[in-house]
């Protein structure tokens, strides 16, 4: 990161923007666009504050803590003039069919973005390489790179840059790639030419709203995170509300239902990034097998994975819910009984609930 150095405004920024986009594609980004950081964000800011006021962010206190800094780039990185947004496909090759795993009942479904290496590290490293290239071309160059790593409204900036439009499930959609991709940004003071936003192509479709297992999408473009399975299995650190546990099924880390049913995802592309390939058979592992992992096994096998961020106890909590929702069998009941007296009160509570489902 570089900040607060006077800028040479005599540079040919139109040509530079073209070069930056070419470099971005060479570095593995499928698309790269530029938005004006000074655009009017007051409607977005108003919606954000209303969302926070309603408590839809749940226990994600950092959302409220940073507040409007998300909509004001210059408050996060002084001098920011442009937001360079990038996207990178993540659907891994040879992964088991998602619907087949979800419907199996006794297999663990893990959101397809989390089957490989932690995307935060991958995207930030590539963005840094892109920033290094820019710095070699034009000096001084003030910037900061992000990938879901700071108070940045990624979807909003990606939408304003023309990478896609916000779908009714609140994720970014692209006519060329659906929604199965990661986003990243570079905040910069370079006065680059900006790209045009595109219109929405969701039309009257409501498939993402209709299929949500917990009805977390309470209206088009409105998500109550407190009901979202991704929030419940990843962000929520405490007990999962009992009324929602049966609705989670075997989804133990994230939920892709709203994406899987989206017609635009017929255009989702398989990733070329080896880092996002399936590791340790996580695309089709059994609930019982994963539940048997010790903390040491969890830490070892998931080193470098985004899943490791939730920790072993939360992992067991999620798996216990999945086992509680699975069809009864001696194997499942024995696996749960083996952790009936787990050291963690959180794990014990969910194990005991799961065992009650098999009476």
Structure in words:
This protein folds into two domains: 13-96 and 110-188, no CATH class; 207-266 and 279-356, no CATH class. The protein has helices at 13-26, 42-53, 61-66, 73-76, 98-104, 119-137, 154-161, 207-211, 229-235, 245-248, 257-260, 287-291, 295-301, 312-325, 330-337, 345-356, and strands at 31-36, 82-89, 109-110, 143-146, 165-166, 172-173, 181-188, 217-219, 222-223, 251-253. The termini are far apart. It is α+β, with helices and mostly antiparallel strands. The chain has a four-stranded antiparallel sheet, with helices on both faces. Strands 3-10 form a two-stranded parallel ribbon. A hairpin with a 5-residue loop joins strand 5 (165-166) and strand 6 (172-173). Pathway: tRNA modification; tRNA-queuosine biosynthesis. Monomer. GO terms for molecular function: 4 iron, 4 sulfur cluster binding; cobalamin binding; epoxyqueuosine reductase activity; metal ion binding.
Task: Tell me the fraction of residues in β-strands, as a range.
Answer: 5-15%
Query: Helix/strand-derived class?
Result: alpha+beta
- Report the mean per-residue pLDDT as an integer: 95
Count of alpha and pi helical runs: 16
Distance between the amino and carboxyl termini = 57 Å
The number of domains? 2
> Main β-sheet: number of strands, strand sense, barrel status?
4 strands, antiparallel
